[in-house]
Amino acid sequence: MDYLPIFVNIKQQHCLIVGGGAVAARKADLFIQAGAIVTVIAPKLKTEMKHHLANGKIVWQMGVFSAEILANLTPPKYVISATDEQSVNQAVYQYCQQKNIPVNVADQTQYCDFILPAIVDRNPMTIAISTGGRSPVLARLMKARLETMIPSGFSKLADLVGRYRQKVKNSISSLDGRKAFWENLLDGSFIDKAVHGKFNEAEQILEYKIQQVVENGQVEPSGEVYLIGAGPGDPDLMTFKALRLLQQADVILYDRLVPIEIVDMARREAERIYVGKKEKYHALEQEDIGQLMVDLAKQGKRVARLKGGDPYIFGRGAEEAEFLVKNNISYQVVPGITAAAGCSMYAGFPLTHRDFSQSVALVAGHQQAGAKAIDYARLANSGDTMVFYMGIKNSPKIQQGLLEQGMNPDTPVAIIENGTTLNQKETICTLENMVETIKETKIKPPALIIVGEVIKVRDRLRPTN
């Protein structure tokens, strides 16, 4: 380890920045955020530093770094030099060495007593990343990745945990017991409630678990189910929350339309159970899937129920959520990009456009027995963009229903197979020849049928080069 990472309290401490440019302004900003009293020595200030001055965040000593200017200043605790003049940087370094003041010369580690890391700020939680000055770009890259993985609400989580630290200490005498308590608490639904500002619910969970320890000597395992929308196929379209919950799950229940690349994002130790369905074959019946989720959650396991697209758009997510509620199982629903949005965009056209369509109708093309019949009269005369999910087998009925209600036979139709994946295939035809096209090109599910004038925009959006 080249440098020892130490977090220093510099609130109301005098710190000095030499330089008035953009780099110096960024260094000053770090000191300002940490509560320091910041003085800047520079002949002139550039835009960012002027902004700090205008907001009263810095004191400016106009001039070049010299003994005369320093004589009028309170001795600083820390100094940073960020100028383009090597002679000035060396003078700052030599002065600080003589006065035993820690100094940092920007981008010159040989003149640094300390270095400033890339920072992920979730105050009061702070994460520092450093490459020892070897590659600031690499440190910033790691910072960017961590920023996406750690929700901004972690600051609220740290505050809440801090408020209960003493109460937990009073309730649990042993160090190992407290450690086990916090590990259990911070690995479940409590963390998500706190991160998203649901403090009353988070505190109820915390109080309940403390009471469990007092009464039973331990925290009883409490499972949870995550109904996760995996998106239309491309793993890059997963949301941060979906990925985070997937990676903390103990068991993964995944559907047929969820690509294995997404399933593989789960922890290696997680158990994987395929529960997909297709015509005439169900790995598990719907009722059995619901019961399996309940049974696993009652064992204290975190269950990720991975669904293609969005759980609440033709995903039977609401049915599963209702079943979980009836069985008193805690659950979360994570929305996903639905196939209509993802597939149309990857095919090169929007779903709405002010010249063609003001609304979108999402329609189940595969009708269950006893389901409400599709209102083709409304669809044909609405001017909507229509998106038919699971409609390939019933495409003759869709075509007939729309044409019989007076829809223009020349209305454009886009049929998108394996949308947003590397195997995506787009077929453009008209409503009149849709069924014939499906037969001739041997289109097979999973495929989406999109009907509407908005498909014409596709040609406008193609790059001319």
SS field, number of helical segments: 18
> Structural class of the helix and strand makeup?
alpha/beta
Q: How does CATH name the architecture of the largest domain?
A: 3-Layer(aba) Sandwich
**Spans where pLDDT lies below 50 across 5 or more residues:** none
* End-to-end C-alpha gap: 51 Å
Topology of this protein?
Blueprint: E1 14-18, H1 22-33, E2 37-42, H2 47-54, E3 58-62, H3 67-71, E4 78-81, H4 86-99, E5 103-105, E6 118-122, E7 125-129, H5 136-149, H6 154-171, H7 175-185, H8 189-195, H9 199-216, E8 224-229, H10 240-248, E9 251-254, H11 260-263, E10 271-274, E11 277-278, E12 281-282, H12 286-298, E13 302-307, H13 317-326, E14 331-334, H14 339-347, E15 360-364, H15 376-380, E16 385-389, H16 395-404, E17 412-417, E18 425-430, H17 434-440, E19 447-451, H18 457-460
Parallel strand pairs: 1-2, 1-4, 2-3, 4-5, 8-13, 8-14, 9-10, 9-13, 15-16
Antiparallel strand pairs: 6-7, 11-12, 16-19, 17-18, 17-19
Please name the defining characteristics of this protein.
single chain, 465 residues, alpha/beta, Rossmann fold, Helicase, Ruva Protein, domain 3, Cobalt-precorrin-4 Transmethylase, domain 1, 5-stranded parallel β-sheet, 38% helix
